[in-house]
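[Q] Does anyone have a clean structure-token version of this?
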Amino acid sequence: MAWVRTIARDEASAELAAALEGQHALYPAEYDGPIRGLDERTPGIVASHTLIPQALYHAFATFGALMAPDLPLSRRDHEMIALMVSTTNRCRYCSAAHAEFLRRVVLDDDLVRALREDYANAPIADRERAMLDYAVQVTQDATRVSPAWHDRLRGVGFDDRGILQVTLIAAWFNYINRAADALGVGRD
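[A] Here you go.
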């Protein structure tokens, strides 16, 4: 469900169709198909943006660009950040979607469950824990991020480009979580 009108793909104008196709081309294969834990009839977050095609394209193309394979983070990293930000924000739709996308990437239900329940005790590498601690801090209060946070990330192997990528993915998910919840995406 979304609390605003959405436009189905088969009813899309040429502008909307182009925005949907352009955005979709930037996304990984894991994003195709139904999302376990969500009603297939529920319009997703992309559909909730269909009334403003250019906003749809630019909003979702931003995240698509941040998942480019030539950037430092892996697909696992992208989805772990998405899941932790969405879980921290209690965004039901994005938490369910990105838990499923992470599951499709790592093929490990136990890891996904551990991250959702208590990421601080999940079986992940120190590099991943530092990355998720940082993403959660950005989500909870970015004004408390200091150079020490970046030093910690550098200490586990992130360069400045990687730190920027983590920051932008975390910030983007804070935006999209709020849009999803405010528009009723996945809410009853």
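[Q] Thanks! Anything notable?
[A] The domain at 9-182 is CATH 1.20.1290.10 (AhpD-like).
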